[in-house]
Amino acid sequence: MFGFKHIGEDGKENVFHVDDVEPLGFAALRDVLKNGRQSHPAVMHGRHAEGDRASDKRVQLTFPIEFNERIPFYGLVPGGAVPPTYLQGKTLVLDRNVVTSLEQADSDTRDEAVAAGERWSFSFLDTPSNTVNPILGAFEGGTQSTPSLDEFREDVTATTRSIKRSLPSVMVTTFSEDLLQRMYAWRKSFDERAASEERFLQTVAPLLHRTVAARSLEQTASEVLRAADSCALKKGLVFLAVLAKLYESPGGSDWGTAQKLLKLRVPYSENDAYNALADLRQLELLASSQGLATPISLLTGDKALALFWCGLKIHSAQIGKDSARFNMNPDAELFPRMPTERRAELFS
Asked: What is the average per-residue pLDDT within 301-318?
């Protein structure tokens, strides 16, 4: 992956070869975001060498790393999130805000501090060891509605151009027309449940757009469950995001993750719901990919999305012929006020 060296007072050179870096979990990333600093905790596993003598013994180093630039994006990987400095040898998909940053990379009207952080981040990604798949933004579309096949195709083409221009060293996934049409058919299949999910979000928005008082939690929980049943909602990520909003911390110990993700308000329009669902759909695709021989990593500038992913703790993904399944063991800190018995009922 990478390595670094330290020269001791005796002049001996000690080299540490890093094989892997533990992703940030929910609490670690939340603390980074709340503190607003560029210091990130790092737990690295690798091998130690002293001089010319290499050791096969695995060792672990734990220390904070202070980055010189702000971190504009995080890579969502199995187990949590990592800064872009650790995204080498990956298959990446880019969410729409990252693609927009690529498209605006040469603009002279942008905030220089923001642009510097993005250029710094992209410099770590621009390596032949990375493969970038340009299709993710096409799943969302650019008009807050299901794209047509022509719009879907053009989005992939435009994103490919932006990647090749700004990240010339990476490998870019290409699609035959047949494969592109199959990917579009997969995207269209999302619409089968989108109507019930949109209706559910619009139903619960008046109940949850403000933090629910402790005395009203159980009554509101019952109303949320009735809304889910009435909308014939499948209890997946949309349902979990709503529960995270219901049981959010009034003091912000969860960084307001669910509200930042869902952006509930009154009135809550179809466009509002579409945007929230598009974000959550990215996590569904990412979770499903964990069952592949080479899991996909999602690069996102949406910190709430990254934190929600860390809190889900996805594991044991399996991909079948026509479907994908995955298990979750959500972090209790994602639902700070959820009663223990309800957590056991939902997640056991």
From this structure: 93
